């Protein structure tokens, strides 16, 4: 039996309490996506239906994360918004422990392992995610489990072990649609595992591909049966491949906070890093050099994931590529980077021992210090104003929110309610509103314009250029003010004759 990893456990416990401290002021952060996840989990628990707050079937997102939140509600008998800090703290702790466990197996020096543990524990990029009620929190944990079980499979390849890897990949597909990157990564690694005979490689690859994709395909078929679409309505991308590469570089700039005022340099470095990593993967395949090692699995997954996001963002419209979209690649690539520098330091130490120790220690301290300062700044902001989202002080103390909570009868007519922040209306004031249409969706705009006699709940501090605005609405409808505050208004809308 392997010795218990006390270092990783201690770091994991610290990670849990860091998330707890970050979410202490206003509870877990809640965004529009969080509202969908939470409402689906509530509806599943209380009504047995996997529907969002607007009674629409859940198709824009896969089903596993709402199921996960519903399970937490069943166990704790408390709403996910209440227990979100504990849930995310446990997930964050599991990521830290598993990454430390991997590093312990591939690098003996504790100093190198602690470099990784501190890099994860104090990462503003990860804390930005684990302070929010988002599916990425579970997805990241599954990515590290995937690295572990894939390495376990390569130690003694068998059908039973490849099935375990496939189930992990399938669960990732049910957490986020980007989970298909697990399937791509697994098929790639198994197919190019040259020590296995060709027949066995192909058999294992087919078994893995069919088993893992069954989860994904099953979810798509469910969506198609319910709504006639596989993943909900998706708009065509408005950004090119090279523009998305630039945004990927900006995310890396955020991941390396010590490189302030060097955005162009980091963008170039981001592309160089991507090309270099791909070249290393190709070289390892050709030479069969440590192909099945944890660090190689982590690198392949990280690169496949980044390429998938950049390419698909050039086809289908996402939010601008940001930390949230790319964060699943962070822990695997940090693990690879720390391992690479650890190996390099021990190779160079025989030639320039003192210089090597000084330079690498300085680089490590600079990185950790910058991470800690960035995270401390986040902590001060979160514990002053709350985590940005619908649980922060701005939303909780909003005059329009307070009025709606105290005067629900203001929306007393049996009519539709439209809003430029319908998720906020549901979460903060328990108002079931529909979203204003997107300007590019002409059919939805026409439906809205023909609707006669409805409420408009307008939040003045929300600026979403994708939605029709009040100027456009006033051109086509009569707006009668029902009530207004400093940050919003309620209108009764009728069509102009």
Would you give an account of this structure?
Among the domains are: 237-348, no CATH class; 398-495. The chain has a five-stranded mixed β-sheet with strand order 2-1-3-5-4. The longest helix is centred in the last third of the chain and has 33 residues, at 353-385. 65% of the residues lie in helices and 6% in strands. The chain has 497 residues and is mainly alpha-helical. It is globular and about 80 Å long. Helix 5 (110-121) packs antiparallel against helix 15.
Short description:
The protein has a five-stranded mixed beta sheet. The chain contains 21 helices and five strands. The protein is mainly α and 497 residues long.
Order of helices and strands: HHHHHHHHHHHHHHHHHHEHEHEHEE
Number of helix segments? 21
Task: Indicate the proportion of strand residues.
Answer: 5-15%
Summarize the biggest pleated sheet: 5 strands, mixed
Any idea what the radius of gyration is? 25 Å
Q: Kindly, what is the distance between the CA atoms of the first and last residues, rounded to a whole number of angstroms?
A: 80 Å
Uncertain runs: none
Total strand segments: 5
**In what order do the strands lie side by side in the largest sheet?**
2-1-3-5-4
Judged by helices, strands and strand pairing, the structural class is mainly alpha
Helix content: 55-70%
Task: Sum up the overall morphology in one term.
Answer: globular
Mean pLDDT across the residues is 89
């Amino acid at each position: 039996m392997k010795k218990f990893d006390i270092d990783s456990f201690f770091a994991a416990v610290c990670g849990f309490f860091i998330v707890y401290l970050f979410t202490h002021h206003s509870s877990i952060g809640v965004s529009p996506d969080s509202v969908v996840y939470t409402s689906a989990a509530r509806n599943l628990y209380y009504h047995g239906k996997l529907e969002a707050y607007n009674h629409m079937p859940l198709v824009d997102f896969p089903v596993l994360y709402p199921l996960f939140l519903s399970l937490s509600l069943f166990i704790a008998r408390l709403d996910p918004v209440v227990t979100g800090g504990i849930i995310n703290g446990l997930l964050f702790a599991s990521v830290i422990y598993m990454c430390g466990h991997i590093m312990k197996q591939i690098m003996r020096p504790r100093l190198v392992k602690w470099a990784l543990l501190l890099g994860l524990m104090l990462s503003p990029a990860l804390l930005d995610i684990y302070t929010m009620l988002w599916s990425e929190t579970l997805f990241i944990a599954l990515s590290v489990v995937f690295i572990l079980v894939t390495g376990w499979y390569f130690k003694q390849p068998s059908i039973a072990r490849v099935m375990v890897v496939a189930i992990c990949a399938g669960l990732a597909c049910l957490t986020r649609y980007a989970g298909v990157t697990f399937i791509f990564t697994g098929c790639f690694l198994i197919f190019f595992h040259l020590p296995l005979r060709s027949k066995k490689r192909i058999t294992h690859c087919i078994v893995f591909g069919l088993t893992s994709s069954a989860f994904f395909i099953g979810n798509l078929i469910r969506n198609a049966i319910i709504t006639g679409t596989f993943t909900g309505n998706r708009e065509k991308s408005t950004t090119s491949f090279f523009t998305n590469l630039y945004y990927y570089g900006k995310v890396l700039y955020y991941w390396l906070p010590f490189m302030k005022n060097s955005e162009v340099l980091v963008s170039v470095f981001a592309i160089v890093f991507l090309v270099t990593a791909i070249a290393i993967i190709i070289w390892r395949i050709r030479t069969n050099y440590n192909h099945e090692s944890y660090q190689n699995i982590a690198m392949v997954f990280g690169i496949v994931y980044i390429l998938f996001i950049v390419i698909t963002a050039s086809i289908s419209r996402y939010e601008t590529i940001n930390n949230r979209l790319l964060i699943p690649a962070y822990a695997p690539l940090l693990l690879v980077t720390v391992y690479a520098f650890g190996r390099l330091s021990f190779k160079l130490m025989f030639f320039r021992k003192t210089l090597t120790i000084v330079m690498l220690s300085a680089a490590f301290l600079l990185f950790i210090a910058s991470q800690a300062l960035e995270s401390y700044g986040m902590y001060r902001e979160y514990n002053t104003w709350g985590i940005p989202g619908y649980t922060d002080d701005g939303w909780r103390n909003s005059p329009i929110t307070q009025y709606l909570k105290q005067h629900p009868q203001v929306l007393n007519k049996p009519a539709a309610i439209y809003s430029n922040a319908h998720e906020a209306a549901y979460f903060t004031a328990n108002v079931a509103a529909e979203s204003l249409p997107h300007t590019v969706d002409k059919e939805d705009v026409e439906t809205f314009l023909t609707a006669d006699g409805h409420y408009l709940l307008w939040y003045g501090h929300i600026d979403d250029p994708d939605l029709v605005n009040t100027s456009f609405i006033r051109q086509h409808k009569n707006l009668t003010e029902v009530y207004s505050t400093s940050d919003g208004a309620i209108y009764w809308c009728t069509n102009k004759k």
